[in-house]
Amino acid sequence: MHSEEAEELLLGADYDAAEDFHRRMSGRADWPTFTVPVTAGRLHIICRNLEGDAGTDYTLHHPDWERAELLANDDGHFMGPGLAWPELAAAADNGLGGGSTTDPDSRLLLLLPAFGDAAVAAERLAAALRARTAVEDPEQLAAALLEGQGPCGPTRWTMNEEGQRINDGRYSFRNPANDFAMPADRLTRVTAALAP
């Protein structure tokens, strides 16, 4: 949540309970990890509990790859977005087993912080919020969450001539214009693995 409005809509009277849950999650010695299978591979949401460097990493891995690809991270030095709306929706709704949950709404909400896209479906996010939270106005919260979309803001995604899904985000590993972008071969395999 990157606005007071979104924070109030999501937490409201449950702010203390949410803060307590956050303390319990971030105070663990282990790193809670959630997994969502995709077309080719698995997305991992890793809650990094390092003292002084806590955050959440969103990685994509396939058993044939020599390394996992960092798509986004949510911490003091945010990087992303890592997922376009079609990729997020496909990962949430694919029905593939072998992950932490098969529930599409839970998957969508787990992956939402790695998302940034100017083209979105607010109704789908509102439905997930309605199904998995107790917020009073899921439609208003969905609109507030999608308005700013975190530190990266809404990003425009395109398919380039090489068939890679890329964006114009200044903090994104999937923007070839950035000095820290993934090389072309890795952009290609990420696009293929996340194909809707």
Describe what this molecule looks like in 3D:
This protein has 7 helices and 6 strands; from the N terminus they run ααββββααααββα. The protein has 196 residues and is an alpha+beta fold. The protein has one domain. The strands form 2 sheets. Strands 1-2-3-4 form a 4-stranded antiparallel sheet. Strands 5-6 form a two-stranded antiparallel sheet. Helix 1 runs antiparallel to helix 6 (138-148), helix 3 runs antiparallel to helix 4 and helix 5 (122-132) packs across helix 6 (138-148). The radius of gyration is 16 Å and the shape is globular. The model has no long low-confidence stretch (mean pLDDT 86).
> Roughly what is the average pLDDT, rounded to an integer?
86
Which structural class do the helices and strands define? Answer: alpha+beta
Number of helices: 7
Low-confidence stretches: none
Number of domains as seen in the coordinates: 1
- What's the helical proportion of residues? 25-40%
Identify the strand order in the major beta sheet. 1-2-3-4
Q: Got a strand count?
A: 6
The biggest beta sheet, please?
4 strands, antiparallel
β-strand percent reads 15-25%
Straight-line distance between termini: 27 Å
Shape: globular
Order of helical and strand elements: HHEEEEHHHHEEH
Rg over CA atoms, rounded to whole Å, is 16 Å
